[in-house]
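Try it yourself: sequence plus ascorbic acid, in.
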Amino acid sequence: MAVKPEDAINYRQGTFSAMAWHFGTMGAMVKGKADYDAEDFSRRAEIVAQLSKLPMEGFVPGSYEGDTDALPAIEEDWDKFEGGMNMLVERTAALAEAAQSGDMAQIKPAFGEVGKTCKGCHDNFKD
Ligand code: ASC
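Structure, out:
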């Protein structure tokens, strides 16, 4: 797929922004800063799980300069990056599954695993 680097950057940033919107709202519930609403939490967890599949195709050659925080390390260590993105897909699916239980004792650790996965890639691949 031939795309302009700036379009790829906008695309993947949009997907991550939408994920952060929902994950942040979920985080407020997990941390007790907002009332836990099981149905709303579950809906958002599903959205995040679906969104997590989207950004990967936006990481195209030539898109690691300009208006982006994505580091060239992504291309240099592609297997590790891809592994991290796959882990995000798996762990957000696990969180969506846990969310269906409505049981915070199951949700909390699953939420934490997703957060760690976000951070793992940010530490290595985001400026
Ligand atoms: C968020 C968000 C992230 C992750 C990360 C977790 O809510 O926007 O990028 O959680 O901070 O470590």
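One thing you can check immediately is this: The CA atoms of residues 16 and 52 lie 8 Å apart.
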